């Protein structure tokens, strides 16, 4: 590339001049390319170790004038091809112009100005994202692509100097972290180390410090482990690796690829070694921590944070902490998180002003809200800028209901545009404000007549309500409430039933979403109800299983409310839809909240507080199950070992986490855990689970089997009671486990919660997130392995490949799909991967990817004709005509090529030249041709039953009016659906045009075979024989009024060739000419027509001779008994036309092929799929090797 001219004093130090003219010198750096000796090795090693390879390209062009000792560097290149293009441009455009100048200074000024102008023009066309990156970083990115053979779509995030441990020897080099790969390169004294690992292959990533590997990072895949150490800042490097691995796991989980944030503000100045992608990922990490800390929505973006103090009127003191400002909120968190936390939505802010500064309150800012609360922040470093940013956000806040970045922004806008229609009760058929559940929870509806006014329980409940009233008076009420240790203490003592719904909404963050989306739930219910989907069917099946012991769900009111909430959420988030256990959690929410409140609480649970818990594979619950096992190993090591032997932990914990103990504990007790969960998050569930195991440790250690351990834990949880509840007792379904002579002792739920905080309260949310990351890699890769085994088991009976071969093919197939997601058509990647589909159909590839795999794994490679053959096979396998092929269809095609006998292989090849595989010039006539063909209608491939069902349905519709025998047609349709084994008699006839294409394919297939000449000889004989068979069949068909072959079109009689006399050259007239023309198109030379008398043979002798194209053989290879079939002159070839009546059958093709041993041996030969797969896996390594080879070596190879 052209570079800004820089002065170079020592032009020949570490460089070798390769070209020169009076004004320019082209140089190559020592250590690159061939030769160089010990000096070259030292220079190459120094470049890698000192990172000069990122600054210094291996080639450069210098400008020099006259006898001057000063040189100017004007261009550099990573390859000889690139630098040669610049050199040729200089010679063609500047040499003649420079020779006119008389003054050397004028020459240098002109060259520098010209190069600067070229650079300025190039910079105008560069993307804005690249402009943010420093020049050094762009050079490093180019070097990464060159070293590892990456395309331009692969973006470098950052690179680090480190050591890679190969065995016990560290190799100093550079670690390149891109969006999709982790790469390492080292060159030390002639020894090169190159490593490329896809992030999607990483199964474990951890940072450790041992004597052998100090401060190292271990990257594990399914087969190998890699150690990297000696980082300048190992923590920053590891955090970035965690982020990139998480992106890869998200891609495996739901096909969610990485999309750069285009709205990221540009830095004030270009950072030296920080790319735009690195800034993007850093901003994402900060946003995630910010949203998790304050329970904010996914579209909330942190604008900035600063240190400050907050005046707390309840404590009469200033608390030190950090102030966070985002697009919709102002938040504060004390340095000690338990001391104070504050969330101020901008929609509640009325006034923001700068207060008077003093020595006690330097740089204060006062923020007042609509509910008359005032918050005073002080010790702000840049108060003016902060107030301006808040003012900017406030100007955008009014009148904004739905976020533009919300996943359902379109639904939101449709609601706002139709508020008048939605507000009409007559228009709302399913949900309106008159419903009892729209204004209060089910518990309040069904407890109205319960006399529970007196007694100690009611008194205690009143005391709790009074305590919260005092708290609201001191700390505020609503979203702007101060949240302190006092708040947590009140939550642990139990939230009063009258306040439970309000406080759940507040602590979970659901209140903010509900307030900013008014009318959203009502509109969503109207859209969702009445639809029939898989999710709605599952919801209907589980409605009556949701807390059937509670009287609120023993009638239609509760069931209908539950149906509406679950159906609305399934419509909002089709990626989750509905998952078992959602009904149990939602039914509890409906007891204390209105329908709309329960809906937004469910949104908070599924999308923020319990991420990935309720998707199709309950990944989040499995991840937390792994975290729980790890916590058990750390906190209860003796019990962990015993429980692992019994296999109990993985069995019990899944139901505990999915339902938040609601399904395994009495309702009145479990709801107290839900109180703590909404305030503390998932950590309280882990704490209580560990406390349950600790309380039963002695008994569990004496268990001998899994059933006994589960019975002990079940009895314990059944007897966790809430003695303070004022609700009537609800029978618990698990009480049957408490059978025995002596009833087990009761456990007070408050004591259990207190014990969990006393023994395991040191558990931090950051530690849980770190363990979640480690377990997420393990769980998702385990699920991928399970999917692979499921797919292999599903198709192994229908394929001749071994289990190991099918697994390797699946890996290659999935890798091609994933690669297309980030290097190919990313816009359609989500459509190709649907996690709700069976494993067999989740990954699908399009035509382009299929052609690449066919070229790497197929046995029928035809040179330039390979892509055409691959496209035909793709169309044949694509039974539903959606332009995509799943793994089973892909294996079906490969199995026919590798493991079929000669008949099966020829049948596949024959079908590849018939519709729908072969696309004729008239695509619109293909369907009519298939329907009008007189051969039996059968599928072209065993799985293409859609065509048969469609035809049967059409027949039923045509006769439905005439005959009313419904049972008869149902039986006929069922019979049509039954798969029938295809025979060779079912295949349609082949016309002349299709036969010519078949000949072209065969000639191209044999072009690289060791027995090439013998195969050409044999196929020419077969082609000639089949042409004659077709001519004979045509005559008999015409004489008997025979039918036309498949694909034949009506043609005028004058255009149809009707030879009464056979061609004296042993051919069949126009048919032979067309075959020769096809061979010519297949890049086989065809000689002129032979006319000498001694070369004219009798037609009857053709069958006993080998007939070949003379252009396919050398002169010395032609035997005495060989007849050379001429094709006539160019004029005859151009004037030949297709014979519309000519046709042959597959039986005739097969019989003719069997007469030639060379063809029989070729098609009976078994292919080696293992070698093909090994070559396909090494393809990336070969690309890297070629890309890192010197240009001198490549030039030698090309010659």
In short:
The chain is an alpha+beta fold and 1199 residues long. It contains 50 helices and 27 strands.
Largest sheet: 7 strands, antiparallel
Main-sheet strand order equals: 9-8-7-6-12-11-10
Radius of gyration: 38 Å
SS field, number of helical segments: 50
Number of strands: 27
- Uncertain runs are 127-131, 400-426, 735-739, 921-964, 1039-1071, 1078-1135, 1181-1199
Q: What would you say this structure looks like, in words?
A:
The chain is α+β, with helices and mostly antiparallel strands and 1199 residues long. The chain is 49% helix and 12% strand. It has 50 helices and 27 strands. Strand 7 and strand 8 (181-188) form a beta hairpin. The radius of gyration is 38 Å and the shape is globular. The two termini are 27 Å apart. 39% of the residues are buried. Residues 127-131, 400-426, 735-739, 921-964, 1039-1071, 1078-1135 and 1181-1199 have low confidence and may be disordered. May act as a GTPase-activating protein for Rab family protein(s). One of its GO terms (cellular component) is membrane. This is TBC1 domain family member 9B.
